[in-house]
Structure formats: C-alpha cells, structure tokens
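Page 37, continued from 36.
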C-alpha cells in the first residue's frame, strides 16, 4: 500500500513539476522496487522481496495479455485447494523427496510394529514409501489442504498402498498414539510442534523434522539425506 501510494503520488506530481510522464510499466517497476525495499526494511522473509517486486509487474503484464477472467478464477481455486489454511498455519505445500524418505526409514528401529505419522502428508509420497519399505509398520498421513489430501488418497488406493490418509489438522491428533512423528513444516510451526510432541508423545517416541530445527532444543540426531541439502533432525522423547 505504501509503495502503491508513493508511486501514485509521484505520477501526479511529476508531470506538472518536472514535465515527466510515468508510463504504467515504469510505475509498476518503481512500485515493485519500492515494495521490495520496504520488505527488506521491515525484515520480512527473503521471498517476500521477490513477491513484492513481481506482484505489480505481474498485474500490468496480465492486464496487457487480456486473459479471460475464468483463468484467474481457475488459478485462484487451484491455489485455494492447494494451500488452504496456509495463512493460519504458515506451512505451505512443498514436497520432500526419496532421499529424505530413505533416511527416515534408516532411523526406524527394525522388527517392531511401529505406528508412524506424517503430519502434513502432502501428496503422500512419504507415507506410501514407508508402507512399502516397512510393511510391518502402520503408517498414517494427515493433511489439511483438500487437493494434496485427495491426491494422496487416490494415489494410495490406486497403488494398493497400506498407508492411510486422513484429512484434518494434526493439532487434533494425539501424538501419544504414534511411536514416530515425521514433520516437514516451517520454522513458524516448530515451537508449538515441540510443545505438543513433548506433552503427548510417550517416552522413547521419536520426533523427526526435515529441514526445520526446534529453536533452543538440541536434536539428538542430525543427518543429511542428500549430502549438501537440508538436515533431517531427530529428538527422542525422554
Ligand atoms: C512442506 S509440506 C510437506 C509435505 C509432505 N510431508 C512431504 O514431505 O512431501 C507441508 C504440508 O503440511 C500441510 N499442513 C500444514 N499445516 C497442517 C496442519 N495443521 N495439519 C495438517 N496438515 C498441515 C500443508 O498443507 C502441506 O501440504
């Protein structure tokens, strides 16, 4: 808003004062630069700078190409069902990969019927991999966003996976029902996740988090599934 107001003001002031007209394209670039600068000044996460810069330019470009309005509606609906409550949870969708799933498998004690949950299971890759490689385990995925959940459900059914996919909020799950809780969330979710795991998980339970550590809580294990990529952290509940 500040960047927009500043550029509008400039567009009105410059022509009579300096005899300079600002085109819409230049105004968009100026607004993008100013908004990105403000994002930096207010110490927002780095990706906000990119979003702030690109947003006004994207509006001008999309206006110029005159796409039918149904395209915007479709894009809005797609993002809605993909990201759903991200504004509240601060955990968007981005998938982990097979190297992470393999690393998680190596941390599961052999020969025991473990109950494992992927909280925020996305498109279900982790749950299906674990149920395939460790068939003795009961593996559950819980996912809040409708699109990833329905995809994981259909993928699970189509491939005959023994993994179970539940639609819901992991906050409503009692972690005490599971021996291993796997999370790939975001830094914002970690303090509350630790409080919940610490309160509910049984002694000896294992909390795993890919990429995001828990501030102030030393992990008992740290491994790097893909060499120089992010770490997989583990905490034994004691
Ligand atoms: C970074 S993705 C990880 C997906 C998957 N676990 C993986 O490893 O590929 C995080 C997922 O958590 C979901 N999520 C965020 N908050 C949640 C909540 N409170 N309950 C259930 N799912 C949640 C998001 O919708 C998103 O799909």
């Amino acid at each position: 808003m500040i960047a927009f107001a500043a550029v509008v003001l400039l567009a009105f002031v410059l022509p009579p004062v300096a005899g300079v007209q600002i085109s819409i394209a230049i105004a968009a670039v100026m607004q993008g630069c100013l908004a990105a600068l403000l994002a930096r000044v207010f110490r927002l996460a780095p990706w906000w700078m990119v979003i702030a810069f690109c947003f006004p330019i994207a509006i001008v470009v999309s206006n110029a190409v005159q796409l039918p309005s149904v395209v915007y509606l479709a894009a809005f609906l797609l993002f809605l069902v993909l990201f759903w409550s991200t504004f509240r949870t601060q955990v968007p969708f981005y998938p982990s990969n097979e190297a992470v799933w393999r690393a998680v498998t190596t941390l599961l004690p052999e020969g025991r019927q473990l109950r494992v949950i992927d909280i925020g299971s996305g498109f279900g890759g982790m749950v299906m991999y674990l149920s395939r490689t460790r068939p003795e385990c009961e593996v559950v995925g819980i996912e809040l966003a409708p699109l990833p959940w329905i995809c994981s459900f259909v993928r699970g059914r189509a491939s005959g996976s023994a993994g179970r996919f539940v639609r819901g909020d992991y906050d409503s799950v009692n972690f005490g029902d599971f021996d291993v809780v796997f999370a790939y969330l975001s830094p914002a979710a970690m303090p509350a996740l630790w409080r919940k795991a610490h309160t509910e998980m049984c002694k000896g339970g294992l909390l795993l988090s890919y990429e995001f550590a828990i501030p102030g809580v030393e992990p008992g294990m740290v491994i790097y599934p893909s060499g120089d990529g992010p770490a997989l952290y583990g905490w034994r509940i004691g």
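DSSP finds nine helices and seven strands in the chain. Flag for discussion at group meeting. The mean pLDDT is 94.
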